[in-house]
């Protein structure tokens, strides 16, 4: 059961609320403790009470949670990021899949128009791993280049079949200490 703070409970009882998203992608494979990406849809940078700062860099375009139409719905959780210069492609290509990802909803106090910065006043709406990613490129006059990150819903792997590349180079690039293919 989700426990809501008294501040958040009072805010949600109002007729209108303003929300923003915060995205955190951790670099699981490098062993570093600093997140790979911290981004928010809020109009300015946000530092929460846990000293994590989410950048308002215009990168986070949308969050699309799974459509739960049945008990065992297997639709995916999608995150769309702007990447017009493909600067994320090189760093993501080798090691984005499998990284830990977290999406949190923040709330704005409608009386002060300031975000609630206490971690207890946010809602974690997704925590899982990156399942896949792809670029969508539009080459029209005002073209766009967006990175679509796909994360599994809680029911996604009930009958999922996925091909794994099991060769020495791939396994070592993902898990440096794994020697399962060193024959």
Largest sheet: 8 strands, antiparallel
DSSP strand count? 10
Secondary-structure element series: HEEEEEEHEEEEH
Rounded average pLDDT: 80
Helix/strand structural class: mainly beta
Distance between the termini: 48 Å
Q: Treating each run of at least 4 consecutive H or I residues as one helix, how many helices?
A: 3
Could you tell me the radius of gyration in angstroms?
Answer: 19 Å
Shape: globular
Percent strand equals 25-35%
Work out the helicity level: 10-25%
Low-confidence stretches: none
Describe this protein's structure:
The protein is mainly beta and 183 residues long. Helix content is 11%, strand content 34%. Strands 1, 2, 5, 6, 7, 8, 9 and 10 form an eight-stranded antiparallel β-sheet that branches. The longest helix has 7 residues, at 6-12. The relative contact order is 0.20. The model has no long low-confidence stretch (mean pLDDT 80).
